[in-house]
Amino acid sequence: MKSYRYLLQAISYLYGGSTRLRNYLYDHKWLSSAPFPLPVICIGNLSSGGTGKTPHTEYLIRLFKDTYKVATLSRGYGRKTKGFILADEYSTAKNIGDEPLQYFKKFGHQISVAVDEDRVHGIKELCIRNNIEIVLLDDAFQHRRIQAGLNILLTGFYHLYSEDTLLPMGRLREDKSQAKRAHIIIITKCPDTLDESLQKEIINKLKPEKKQEVFFSFIQYAKYLRDYYENEVPLSTLQKKQVLLITGIEQSEPLVKFLKKKCSQLIHLSYPDHYKFRTKDYSEINLIFKDLAGEKCFLTTEKDYMRIRDINSWAKCIFYIPIFTRINRKNTFDQKIIDYVRSTTRVGKIL
Fold first, then answer.
1. Which residues of the chain carry a pLDDT beneath 70?
2. CB-CB contact of 216 with 328 (8 Å)
3. I want to staple 171 with a disulfide (CB 3.0 to 4.6 A). Which of 47, 128, 214, 313 is the partner?
């Protein structure tokens, strides 16, 4: 056991050295970051996942979609394709990824949703094709080839980056000192009981720089479910049902805790983040579902549903629950983002 731990420590040391070197080269201009003459907002984290990037990106979409031409750009984690793809009615999780598909299904053509592993190229394509005014970079804190004008760093309430270590010993993708690149830090998935004294305690743990402002955000589940046809179904429907919950997300505990109060019985099947469900999985899940007596239903998360909906035999008999983000000092947060956008006007063409 000790030798295994030493091996992980050695790998973490080597991994940390490589990321520190890379950041040093960017910090000292040996590697270049491409600036763009329009607002580019990065929403990311230091850890390997589970901080709530998707609902926070959606928060910013709602903030700007009615007044600006907004685009989301990500690499499209888990997709089977390469290069630049602009989401449309024929997009699936397989060709653009589950999170970009979620953005498109939720907001449609109110915004542009694109994926490209080369995000410098992706921004150029978005500006040429759709004359975009704001770009939201989803999960791009480590993508330093782009010089984002505003970096928003997320860290989970129960998994603060200040208390974590580098992969594979911990969950950090780069050294915690790189939090200094953030303009805004948001502690996500906070409990509703969070008070000012605990907020101060957490801020002291993070030790933010003077230029950095810290906010706290909370998960807010919808008071309804959605079905395959995007109909709203009252959450109270679950009260007399046995629910088989299927999740493939990093942290499902808050959702499980919430749903236990809403249904008569909850059975939870948990899979790894971004899990690609196989035919074998569906067969096993069906057997468990058949054993449930009385009124019952399938339920999943919004992100998982984007992958499950590709399986026609399943999509029409499963519900998902939408999720939203609530941020403390909302007016202050919104104004800070709005001020950045207004001060960063697009100048000239993007080549």
1. 1-4, 6, 310-316, 345-351
2. yes
3. 47
92 and 101 in contact (C-beta within 8 Å)? yes
Contact 300, 245 (CB under 8 A): yes
Can you list the alpha helix ranges (DSSP code H) found in the chain?
A: 2-27, 53-64, 93-96, 98-107, 119-130, 196-206, 253-260, 279-290, 302-308, 312-315, 330-343
Are 303 and 277 in contact by the 8 Å Cβ rule? The answer is: no
Quote the tokens at residue 260. Answer: 């236990």
Q: Residue 219 is encoded by which pair of tokens? A: 């998960």
Beta-bridged to residue 247, according to DSSP, are 270
Three-state SS letters, 334-346 = HHHHHHHHHHCCC
Q: How far apart are CA 148 and CA 102, in angstroms?
A: 23
User: Considering only CA atoms, which of 340, 253, 244, 338 is closest in space to residue 299?
Assistant: 244
DSSP letters for 92-125: -HHHH-HHHHHHHHHHGGGSEEEE-SSHHHHHHH
Contacts of 237 (CB under 8 A, 6+ apart): 225, 297
Look up residue 82 and give its two tokens. Answer: 């390469």
- Sequence-distant (≥ 6) Cβ neighbours of residue 77 within 8 angstroms: 97, 98, 99, 139, 274
The CA–CA distances, whole Å, from 272 to 67, 143, 150, 195, 200 equal 38, 24, 31, 32, 33
- From residue 312, alpha-carbon distances to 4, 29, 309, 317 in Å are 44, 50, 6, 9
Residue 313's pLDDT is 64
Rounded distance between C-alpha atoms, residue 96 and residue 78, angstroms:
8
Residue with tokens 């598909």: 101
